[in-house]
Write a structure and sequence with these properties.
Elements: E1 4-5, E2 9-16, E3 26-31, H1 35-42, E4 48-53, E5 57-64, E6 67-74, E7 78-86, H2 90-112, H3 121-139, E8 142-149, E9 154-160, H4 165-183, E10 188-190, E11 193-195, H5 201-214, H6 220-228, H7 233-246, E12 252-253, E13 262-263
Parallel strand pairs: 1-9, 2-9
Antiparallel strand pairs: 2-3, 3-4, 4-5, 5-6, 7-8, 8-9, 10-11, 12-13
Length: 271
């Protein structure tokens, strides 16, 4: 089961920029349906999900009446991404059961001689309800993306709305290509197609600079080791500040293979 799982969202937008000129290749935005979540959004409390992905990182924020979560992971640390759509097969079963029960009711009434409504009335009503359920099954679908990092953290984003399934597949193709290109510089073939998407290296450089600036005294491999384990950048920053406070603003030096943090003797590197 995914560590972060959204309810089925009403999709507001799914923007795909294969050139990455906007700084984001994929931007998905959706809101949690329902009166309570609408009130929360009106009050300024998050009742929505926002996902952005570029060549450097994937970031997701999601919230509903139960709380809020955020997830940040470098693109190169993502291990897999799946996507597609699901249908509620139970609707077809319910349609069949409804029709059969209605038919049996008509037979029982016919046998007992209670023909007030005439034979076939309940069968006709059951047939109408069965057809409605079949139509709902045919024309509704729940689309999803499921993303997993190398550290074992995973997130599942579910959404519905008036969107072509081809757009969902196109977004999935772009996301898979970004993951592949983050780990391999050569030609990438995804879903039998050669991915010609160009990944701007500037995005990666800028993001790494920002990360290092937020954690003076830590180097890039150490920061990445935490992100690979599924830590969000906000959680890591909170942990970093907590340790700084505990050691009276003494710089931190950490072994990647050890979860403990030890202070450096030099104090000036934080100043």
């Amino acid at each position: 089961m995914a560590d972060i799982k959204t309810p089925v969202l009403d999709l507001k937008s799914l923007e795909i920029d294969e050139n990455g000129t906007s700084g984001t290749f994929i931007h998905l935005s959706g809101v949690v349906p329902g009166l309570i979540n609408s009130i929360l959004r009106f009050m300024g409390i998050n009742g929505s999900t926002d996902l952005r992905m570029n060549a450097s990182y994937l970031e997701m924020r999601t919230g509903n009446a139960r709380g809020q979560s955020s997830w940040f992971v470098p693109t190169g640390s993502l291990s897999s991404i799946q996507g597609g759509y699901q249908k509620d097969f139970g609707l077809l079963i319910m349609a069949a059961i409804t029709f059969i029960i209605a038919f049996i009711v008509d037979l029982v009434l016919q046998e007992t001689g209670d023909g007030t409504f005439g034979f076939g009335v309940f069968t006709a009503i059951g047939f109408v309800f069965a057809i409605i359920m079949v139509i709902i099954y045919v024309f509704t679908k729940t689309m999803y993306f499921e993303i997993e990092s190398g550290g074992g953290m995973s997130a599942r984003i579910q959404f519905s709305g008036a969107i072509d399934i081809n757009e969902v597949e196109r977004a999935l193709l772009v996301m898979q290509t970004l993951i592949a290109k983050a780990q391999y510089d050569g030609e990438v073939i995804v879903m039998g197609k050669l991915a010609t998407m160009v990944v701007p290296k500037e995005q990666i450089l800028i993001q790494h600079q920002v990360d290092l600036q937020r954690f003076p005294g830590w180097d890039e491999p150490m920061i990445r080791s935490y992100l690979d384990k599924g830590w969000s950048i906000e959680k890591l920053d909170e942990y970093y500040q907590q340790k700084v406070s505990e050691h009276n603003a003494t710089p931190l030096i950490e072994d990647e293979n050890d979860s403990t943090v030890t202070p450096s003797v030099e104090r000036e590197s934080f100043e």
